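Residues and backbone
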Amino acid sequence: MTIAEIALAAFLQVRQGKSAEQVICDDDTNHVFILLCNQSSSARPDEVWNTSLLNLRKANKLALYPTTSRKAPNPDAKRYSNCVAQAVRLMERQFDANVDRIICNPDMRCQFDAMVQYLLPGASVFESRYKALTLRKTKRLRPEPVGQIIRATASSFLPLAELEARINEIPTASGVYIFVDEDKTLYVGKADNLRRRVGDHVSTWAFRELISAIDNGSRGIAWIYFHALPVTCTARELSAYEQELIRSRRPEHNRAGKTFEE
């Protein structure tokens, strides 16, 4: 039997009406699926079986097995969408991996789970993983080619409420930065010196007002993501990187000439 045939047979044994994505994202069901696959073949990494199952679904090879065990709607779908997307985007740059691999690979999936928990405490592990695959399936996590060509030398994020105290954790290299909250991307910017430029934002009245609102609970948590780029990155490449992020993330304050400071 081929890997695909083994994955299909195991899927049919464990699915109980579930979709391929549900089998991959649910720890208990996925554990049994992997065991069955390895019993029918020489043991292979979990990622191989999960990827094979996902590819079967993408190739429409599961059309004869409709999903009858529907997932209940998630009342916090919008918050999950944003936090999950931010986690996936950061991991794409850290590990040069797409969303399918992040969810199918156990080690990457654990790091993804931890990142989502940090961004959205109490988030369901299953819902987060399922949302990541759903965003990919509905083309809301389209590739960002410039970010794949110009590899970041460092990528990380900080809560805005801690930014002033931790500003020295921002590299002095050139790069791009992204302000986000629980619901949306707020602003994307570029800088020849990330630490200095982000420090300029910290000193503005608008930033102080934002932090005050977070502290008094009138708005949710917000973060800054940053990607330091190689010293060989030209001004033109830096601008292209920023413009791609603006097109992809659709930040609220980059529209109609607005800036984060306004």
About this structure: The radius of gyration is 21 Å.
